Automatic annotation (TrEMBL), chain A:
Species this chain originates from: Tropicimonas sediminicola
Pfam families hit by this protein: BPD_transp_1 (PF00528)
Main location (coarse class): membrane
Protein name (Swiss-Prot/TrEMBL): Putrescine transport system permease protein
Membrane topology: Multi-pass membrane protein
Membership in a protein family: Belongs to the binding-protein-dependent transport system permease family. CysTW subfamily.
Automatic annotation (TrEMBL), chain B:
GO BP, sorted A to Z: transmembrane transport
Pfam families, A to Z: BPD_transp_1
Locations listed in the record: Cell membrane
Family of this protein: Belongs to the binding-protein-dependent transport system permease family. CysTW subfamily.
Keyword Transmembrane: yes
Protein name: Putrescine transport system permease protein
ABC transmembrane type-1 domain sequence ranges: 80-286
SUPFAM superfamilies, per database record: MetI-like (SSF161098)
Keywords, ordered alphabetically: Cell membrane, Membrane, Transmembrane, Transmembrane helix, Transport
Organism: Tropicimonas sediminicola
Primary localization class, coarse: membrane
Length: 271, 298
């Protein structure tokens, strides 16, 4: 008994307007001619031009991208290992501590994670820079990856894995030929999650970055503290556009994949 | 245990021990140390080369001075209380805004739902910092909200919203709204519509059926959503520092300033330990609730 009453329509409209209007305003005013960000003075793309010429932003973007690619890749490997151990590993010494350490970073306030990692890096005398940000980001995002991957590992049919082992696969071959292809979509979305978490992180990066490495969020934060600026609006628009395209493409791809799977199953049932 | 499996366990295990547990123990230790004008700016440092005697000296110099300081200086307990208050109020507001949206989504035609889901998830992938920043231009004195309200004639003087607690509430509700909508939607979507039909057949009005059937059955989703908003809101730093004013006291901001501006590492560490102690209660409650939920579903 689904019925879209006027109440539902109104609440959906208001809810989505609330979610999207602030971002729309940001996008519209990134094309504003005037430096005053709240007064419309005609269409212009000059702030995008200024942005491209701003070397500090470009450097920061490059640092951020390198950190995100490195940390999300290492986090995906470690997180998948952790998920496999948690779901298939059976009992081992210190399992409770291990599962605690996987879930704790998900609820730990960022200020505490950042502070504690910084104090560690100082205690062991590691110079702060790109490496320390990568280490920090890998640590918290591997936990997100492991949650995403383990939910997939729990739900799939173990007998396929066992069949591979019965047919003479080594455990590693069984993982590579059977398990990995099945959990691959979850591993991919784990990587994507880790990647965006790293791109987005301000607090942990601020603690763990040294003067030599400034990431884009640190740069944005220090300039928006002084107020709204049209250049930041332009930068935000670019970032929103990349995410929107990415999410829409990913959802269309998964829709197609589901449709294809349904077709194949139907075809298999007919033969 | 074969060596391959051992390796599989050891690599992520050691990583988390070294980069999660050990750093936290360091925070705990520094919170018991004293400030010093040195690098690093605290004493004592553990001198392992001095062996057992060094360790004993190290222990004897630790004390709870920083915690005593936290309890005596009203700034700190006021910040903890005000963080709790802000987190509680904004969680409640998020519930009020999020529930009708989740309810609307659950009642929407089937073919709309993937799109609506995507629209809720999309902001989650968008930079948190940018979404908070977007409100700075809206809430300022010359901002869009004031321009709009002046234009409609509802107000004659611009309202001061930016740099107040109101702006912090708006910021938290806005950024955490998807976390509230998704779990509520998940429970509402599973709700058996025949229960509502039965209630109406038995003489309930539609509002009565909502109150007696839908609302109680969506409780697990509401509880999960509230925890998902409350826990991160309590330690929030970005929102109070961009949207809040100088009188907005939130513990995440106090910790940040203690560390970066005052450079008082021992006190910053003690602030962190106490914040964690406060958070442990809602975290454990949340885990229990999730477990009960899973058991109920099986």
């Amino acid at each position: 008994m689904r019925r879209l009453t006027w109440f539902n329509t109104v609440s959906l409209t208001i809810g989505f307007a609330f979610l999207y209007i602030p971002m729309l305003i940001l996008i519209i005013f990134s094309f504003n001619e005037s430096k005053l960000v709240t007064v419309w003075a005609g269409f212009s793309t000059k702030w995008y031009g200024e942005l491209i010429r701003n070397e500090a932003f470009l450097d920061a973007a490059w640092v951020t991208l390198r950190v995100a690619v490195l940390s999300s890749t290492v986090a995906t490997v470690l997180g998948t290992m952790a998920a496999y151990v948690m779901v298939r590993g059976g009992r081992f010494f210190g399992r409770t501590l291990f599962s605690g350490m996987i879930y704790a970073p998900l609820v730990m306030p960022e200020v505490i994670t950042g502070l504690s990692l910084l104090l560690l890096f100082i205690a062991i005398g590691l110079d702060r820079g790109i490496i320390t940000i990568v280490l920090a980001h890998t640590t918290f995002s591997m936990c997100y990856v492991s949650v995403v991957v383990s939910s997939r590992l729990v739900s799939f049919d173990r007998s396929v894995e066992e069949a591979a082992l019965d047919l003479g696969c080594t455990p590693f071959q069984a993982f590579r030929l059977v398990t990995l292809p099945i959990i691959l979509p979850a591993v991919a979305s784990g990587w994507l999650l880790a990647f965006t978490l790293s791109l987005d992180d301000l607090v942990i990066a601020s603690f763990t970055a040294g003067p030599s490495a400034t990431t884009l969020p640190i740069k944005i934060f220090s300039s928006v503290r002084l107020g709204v600026s049209p250049e930041i609006n332009a930068l935000s628009t670019i970032m929103i556009a990349i995410v929107a395209v990415g999410v829409i493409v990913a959802s269309l791809m998964s829709k197609n994949a589901i449709a294809r799977q349904a077709r194949e199953e139907k075809a298999a049932a007919q033969t | 245990m074969n060596p391959r499996k051992a390796l599989l366990i050891l690599v992520p295990y050691l990583w988390l021990l070294a980069l999660f547990l050990v750093p936290f123990l360091i925070v705990l230790k520094i919170s018991l140390s004293d400030v010093a004008l040195s690098i690093p700016p605290y004493t004592p440092t553990l001198d392992l080369s001095a062996g057992w005697a060094g360790f004993r000296d190290f222990l004897s110099e630790l004390d709870f001075e920083n915690y005593v300081f936290l309890s005596e200086d009203s700034l700190y307990w006021k910040s903890y209380l005000s963080s709790l208050k802000i987190a509680l109020i904004s969680t409640f507001l998020t519930l009020l805004v999020g529930y009708p949206v989740a309810y609307g989504m659950a009642n929407a035609p089937d073919e709309w739902r993937p799109t609506l889901m995507m629209l809720v998830i999309l902001p989650f992938w968008t930079s948190f910092l940018i979404r908070v920043y977007a409100w700075m231009g809206i809430l300022s004195n010359e901002g869009f909200l004031n321009q709009f309200l002046l234009w409609t004639g509802l107000i004659s003087e611009p309202l001061t919203i930016l740099n107040t607690n109101t702006a912090v509430y708006i910021g938290i509700v806005y950024t955490y709204l998807p976390f509230m909508i998704l779990p509520i939607y998940a429970t509402l979507e599973k709700l058996d519509a025949s229960l509502l039909e039965a209630a109406e057949d038995l003489g309930c009005t539609r509002a009565g059926a909502f109150w007696l059937v839908t609302l109680p059955l969506s409780r697990p989703g509401m509880i999960a959503g509230c925890f998902l908003v409350f826990i991160p809101a309590l330690g929030e730093f970005v929102i109070p520092s961009l949207l809040g004013g100088s009188d907005t006291l939130m513990i995440g901001k106090v910790l940040w300033e203690e560390f970066f501006s005052n450079r008082d590492w021992p006190v910053a560490s003690a602030v962190a330990v106490v914040l964690l102690a406060i958070l442990i209660v809602p975290i454990i409650l949340f885990q229990r609730q999730q477990q009960r939920q899973q058991e109920a579903e099986q």
